[in-house]
Amino acid sequence: MTSLSVTNTETLPADWRDFLALTKPRVMSLVVFTGLCGLLAAPVSIHPVLGFTAVLCIALGAGAAGALNQWYEADIDAKMKRTAGRPLPAGRMDRQSALHFGVGLSFFSVLTLGLATNWVAGAILLASILFYVLIYTVWLKRRTPQNIVIGGAAGAFPPMIGWAAATGDITLLPVLLFTIVFLWTPPHFWALALFVKTDYANAGVPMLPVVAGEETTRHHVLLYTLPMVASAIAPWSLGLLGSIYGVTAALLSLVFLLMAARVGLRTAQADDQMRPEKALFAFSILYLFILFGAVAADRMVLAS
């Protein structure tokens, strides 16, 4: 049985910065942006106050999931260099406070979104929180190298939530936007896992580079990029979005594919700094920001 205890038993008083850190604000920024773009891409307008409320609830829901993730994974975080400074493993907060904070934010975000917009959006937000916490964090993360493949669905819900907040339903375009993020997640995280493999190994997390090796992981990065590129082009090829999105998606995806090929087909060298992997990881974040910005821009131009 996995122990959830943290080695640092002395807990210092937490302040607002520690609660903010629980929400994983850097991760949240991408989640919020894709949710906003899903809302702006919807074919109907929404009152600005309700739109702001919807985006705020997406942010709070993502923060709640992040807090509950850190509550459950405090023991793992304590063993990894890049996460050891988080509030729980650093001893700045007790686990009960993190649990109450995450549960409270979850209820507040889902209830507020449902009342302010509609319960379709509220239900999808609830599903995204539960998926991230129960399916990815509790079930998959410690058990299988496919954790990020299946668990990637958790981060793919926001554009659907934004769309549903405006329309009250789900059609093909938000499903495709979900698919793009879902297929983007494995090459994005495996690029990261390649250069922080030691951290995952020390924490006992069966990420693909740890259990299958770096060469296999590199090949998977390239293989998973191919359907991601196809899904990114699909909204244009199906006529759901116009040329602004189409040209942007084609150019960005070509660059992503070339960078993924550089990772997937290379052989590691002694004292390798993994520059291609780090470059792909950094570009993958920019890729999703620009791609979803093009979604919103394209729909807004078509609507004008």
* Strand-residue proportion: under 5%
Average pLDDT, to the nearest integer?
92
Helical content (DSSP H or I, runs of 4+) = over 70%
Uncertain ranges: 1-9
Q: How many alpha or pi helices?
A: 14
Main sheet summary: none
Strand and helix order: HHHHHHHHHHHHHH
Q: Tally of extended strands? A: 0
Rg result: 20 Å
Q: Structural class from helices and strands?
A: mainly alpha
- N- to C-terminal separation? 58 Å
Looking at the structure, what is the overall shape? flat
What do you see in this structure?
This protein has 304 residues and is mainly α. Helix content is 74%, strand content 0%. The chain is flat. Residues 1-9 have low confidence and may be disordered.
Record keyword descriptors for this entry.
304 residues, mainly alpha, 0% strand, flat
Short description:
Helices cover 74% and strands 0% of the residues.
